TrEMBL record, chain A:
This is Tripartite tricarboxylate transporter permease. The chain crosses the membrane at residues 20-42, 54-74, 111-133, 139-160, 167-188, 208-229, 261-284, 318-336, 357-387, 393-425, 432-451, 471-492. It comes from the Bacteria. Pfam families: TctA (PF01970). InterPro entries: DUF112_TM. It comes from Tianweitania aestuarii. Keywords: Membrane, Transmembrane, Transmembrane helix. Residues 23-441 form the DUF112 domain.
UniProtKB/TrEMBL annotation, chain B:
It comes from Tianweitania aestuarii. Keywords: Membrane, Transmembrane, Transmembrane helix. InterPro entries: DUF1468. The chain crosses the membrane at residues 12-29, 35-61, 82-103, 123-141. This is Tripartite tricarboxylate transporter TctB family protein. Residues 14-148 form the DUF1468 domain.
Amino acid sequence: MFDFPAVLDAFSSLFSMPMAWFLVPLGIFIGLIFGAIPGLSVPIAMAIFLPMTLYMDFLESILFLTAIFTGGGFGGSIPAILMNVPGTSAAIATCFDGYPMAKQGKHNRALGLALSASTLGTAFGYLMLFVILEPLSHVVLKLGPSELFLVAVVGLLLIGLMTEGRFWRAITAGSLGVLLALIGMSSAGTERGTFGSLYLLDGVDTNAAMIGLFAASELFLLVKSDYLVQDRESRSVSTREIISGFFAIGSNYRTLFRGSVLGAGLGVIPGLGSSIANLVSYSLTKRFSKDPDSFGKGNPDGVVAAESANSSSEGGSMVGLLALGIPSSAATAIMLSAFSMHNITGGPRFISDQKDVVYAIIAGNLIQAIILAVIGILFIRFIVYIVRVPLAFLLPPIVICTALGSYALTTSISGPVTLVVFSVLGVLMKRYGYSVVAMVIGLLLGLMMEGNLVRTWQLGGGSLSPIIERPISIAILVLIVLSLSGAFYSSWKRRQDRASSALTNEDPASRHG
Amino acid sequence: MNITLNRAGHLGLLLVFGAFVIWFAHNAWMASSTVINMLLIGPTALLAICLIGSIAVGLVIHPERDADHSEDDGDGSLRQRFGVPIGCAALALYVLSLGTIGYDIAGVLFCAATMLLMGRRNLLVIALYSLLVGFGPVWILQHPMGIPVYSLIVE
């Protein structure tokens, strides 16, 4: 299975390129900056720096781009933890427990934990890529449109199941998200809900919408506060606590392992990757936890689950690129451009003919994970001072950066306008208990769901029969039914328990009186 | 916010949701009534309308199901009482003014207004900081990133 001479060749070519070891830390630093600023994203960073890779060797260019990818993976967790604004869609679940930890003054620890989960998750993802690259590429080819559609449905249902007592409101928000994602020109050339506007032909700008929905609900609420962390004593910046948080991962090893496996596995599936992996990992960790009620209130396991999954999905997403030549995310699509700029085509032949290059990419990324740990600690040390800055100084540049970031994505006013519309919507949805996460997931997956459903319909000769005929689809359907039944049963049981304990605690005199 | 006003707001939001779903489904149907076009839109719109209707009916029958308790107004200051709506309005004004007065000037004014709203009173600090925050990001977009941005002063 392993070609050891190719592994040795990979290491020798890695260490014969001193330039790569200048480019990798630079790439990680760029990724950290772009990931940490809401509105900017890893694909933007990769797209901006893609032309630079023309002047590099193929391996150097891929290592540089994956370094941006790796740095951005962790960078997105920084605003998620400190401000409840996910830097990228992959950091949505990091907000759930990271921000409550920050509010309790445990921001140093939360960031340290997120960094170690990201580092180990990235390393795990690439180790898994090393082991299963070839066999997994065959399995991915067997996933048809019906399976991909059902996996997206699972993603939406999971969000609903995670919102305690507000399941139907979350499903409503998710459905609205799906419909919003379908605004624009369909693949068949039909214009839907565009008001005749050119700006809406490509649909709603999901990045601007996501930042609006998440950022607004928190940033506007922060207008009422003076500091991110209200308690003066808790506003400390401590390298010792960051490092202790980094090494505290030892007590979360089960969550780390589960998150990494899920992330690497889901990262392989085109169109899903890290944005779903972090949510699936978070919800499963909560489900299997002995103390599920502590989630959402600052449980470190929640941060580890989300960060390990989104980081390991990077390795998973490279499977499609290397083994099939198919990008599974915006970031890998840009990497594919770097492939073509160097006249290289990914796919089974690339793996068999250039095994040493493939192994060098994997080994280079394993070393990147270690570099991320070092640079990450230094980066956190400076960025964590944010908690000491009065919000009057912090909020205006964040809002301006998010507005300009959404402008940079489209280079038109449509980005900032989308941001405002979804900001107001986010405030209202949060006020009335509708999950903004569900709406974002609907927005991210809507087009992919429609494309796969249409392909299923066409493959079924004008029916959706493939959904109930293909074994993998049936397995996913069974999983959906089982998890829904389990969730409804446990919610019913919780209500019963609460009712019976209320009866027990009731004053006997008032009961008889 | 009292419970009646709160519930009215919630029902208003549901009305907006419902109106969007019906309008979008109708618009898509008018654009093309083929199965391919309506394959996902039709069932999703139907599900959304059913859920919106059920939630609205549930709200009318069980008012206690409404939103969480109203937020604390703190010290009763303008920022505490109306900070969120003023913030929303300021962001909307900022974005609407981008194309008119330039991204740089709009940024400066937005920053200064937000700082004043949040209780800062040192005008010199506000002016200097607003200039930095308004001009800095625009310059970064224009120069290192090479993205064209409409601006009045920063070139």
